[in-house]
């Protein structure tokens, strides 16, 4: 067998394969005999039909069967010789074969692209924003705890801002005709919050049990929906007074309101520290991807879009069928970035010999158990499954990789308070 490799680009290869008849003859004869054994016609016993009759009637079919098996056999041999691992099914072209002649064809396929990593050890520079908490954060945390321990009281004199409304939501078309399959029963909303704070929701003011009202809700990004809501009930929250007794109710482990506030401050700080660390990790990965030239194999992009299509189908079961071209256009940049980072990450892990052992995994599981409200044995049992253990392994590898990358990162840090971020969010809508 002779094989010749051609580089189409960094990830597309084409092998020209030429197998002489002398290498094929023995297997071709065997294929012919195996076919002949199962063939019979009137006048001849099964397996005793003369060769010339078998060839006349089934010669092309025998050749086709033999060719199909041989193509894969010699393609695999060529891959082994060239030490190549395809990431997609090969495209077979220029096929030539007849009994007594050489088998010739080309196999075109994709491999993981080769690329040069950005020199992160010398030039890794990123920006990051460190967020500092304010008293507002503790106040909001206390309010959330109040809501969790609030009592519910029915409202008889009509809904007002902040009241909870339970109703059956029927989506309407432009002519106010109910859309079949778009009725959502026993939905809870808070009047005056989220999408129910806009002008379209003003008709909810003063509604009572058994009322029916039409509202226009703006979900943003051009999505506006008109509903007819049949009101089942209207409730209001009665919040408990914030004092030492409330603190003990909210957290039995504390003895005073001051102790609860201190605990909330620590929890908020932990959360902000984690967000800061994640922000640095994200900015590092973005920077390295931007600075590293990686050609994206078509097969990897198509596989990514396949997964996106499947996810969207699950989320939009009742919506119109998805257009693959539109989805591809929408997600192409996201797909290419994620694939690029996947390839870069894999290369970084290999080149830096980043590995995970049982000690690393057990330590991570112990930490998860410590931070969980569930019993330790239950948490450990959860991570015994292959899928969950794989996630732990991936988390540990990521942690080790980014700790390594951070050693070479120059971080330009800015500070902002949570109050500043809230104002920016309000300003930007």
How would you portray this structure in words?
The protein has helices at 21-37, 51-82, 120-123, 135-148, 244-250, 257-291, 298-315, 324-351, 358-371, 376-382, 386-406, 418-427; strands at residues 2-7, 12-19, 91-96, 103-110, 125-132, 151-154, 164-172, 178-190, 212-218, 224-238, 410-417. It has twelve helices and eleven strands. It folds into three domains: 2-110, Alpha-Beta Plaits (2-Layer Sandwich), CATH 3.30.70; 120-131 and 254-427, Trigger factor, domain 2, CATH 1.10.3120; 151-238, Transcription elongation factor, GreA/GreB, C-terminal domain (Chitinase A, domain 3, Roll). With 429 residues, it is α+β, with helices and mostly antiparallel strands. The strands form three sheets. Strands 6, 7, 8, 9 and 10 form a five-stranded antiparallel β-sheet that branches. A four-stranded antiparallel β-sheet has the order 1-2-4-3. Helix content is 48%, strand content 21%. Helix 7 (298-315) packs across helix 8, helix 9 packs across helix 10 (376-382) and helix 9 crosses helix 11. The radius of gyration is 33 Å and the shape is elongated.
Q: Specify the structural class.
A: alpha+beta
Q: What's the β-strand tally?
A: 11
Order of helices and strands: EEHHEEHEHEEEEEHHHHHHHEH
Give the number of domains: 3
| CATH class group of the largest domain | Mainly Alpha
CATH 2nd-level architecture of the largest domain:
Orthogonal Bundle
Rg, rounded, reads: 33 Å
Q: Determine the mean pLDDT.
A: 90
